[in-house]
Amino acid sequence: MLQIVATLADVSEELRPDKSNSLATRARYTLQINALDDLIKLHKLPSAQQLQLLQSPAFRLMLQKITNYARGQHPVQVGCLVCSGNGLELARQLGADPGWTGLHCSEHAEAFHAGVPEKRNCCELDYHPDRDYWWRGNHVPG
């Protein structure tokens, strides 16, 4: 979780929203602030719980996605690689990179994962700052 402290230090000076910013820029700031809040909340978890979370490769990737948003590095949304005919070789390269998301549509999930077993960027523990998560304390299961 030292990554959280370093990210907070790096980003705190950059987040000075300005009324002259465009709506799109303000929206990006909002996502960035939400991700920073998530990093703060995760950093405040008890050490034992942090250690348990960090043992999960899927959670470590999710933490990297949160960090990317906090740094203003939003993931690239990729259209379905099966629909577009880009092939699964590209998917294998992007499957574990936290800078990419999407990768397949619901109709091609099975075909996609027949060739690319990695699911952390498309089917499991995806992160977006507008969603609700258990560490925020107001998550409603379901």
How would you portray this structure in words?
- The chain has 142 residues and is mainly alpha-helical.
- It folds into 2 domains: 1-74, no CATH class; 75-128, no CATH class.
- The protein has 6 helices and 2 strands, in the order ααααβαβα.
- Helix 5 links the parallel strand 1 (76-78) and strand 2.
- It starts with a helix and ends in a 27-residue tail after the last helix.
- The mean pLDDT is 77.
Topology:
Blueprint: H1 2-11, H2 23-43, H3 47-54, H4 57-70, E1 76-78, H5 88-94, E2 100-102, H6 109-115
Parallel strand pairs: 1-2
Summarize the structure.
The chain is mainly α. It folds into two domains: 74 residues, no CATH class; 54 residues, no CATH class. It is 47% helix and 4% strand.
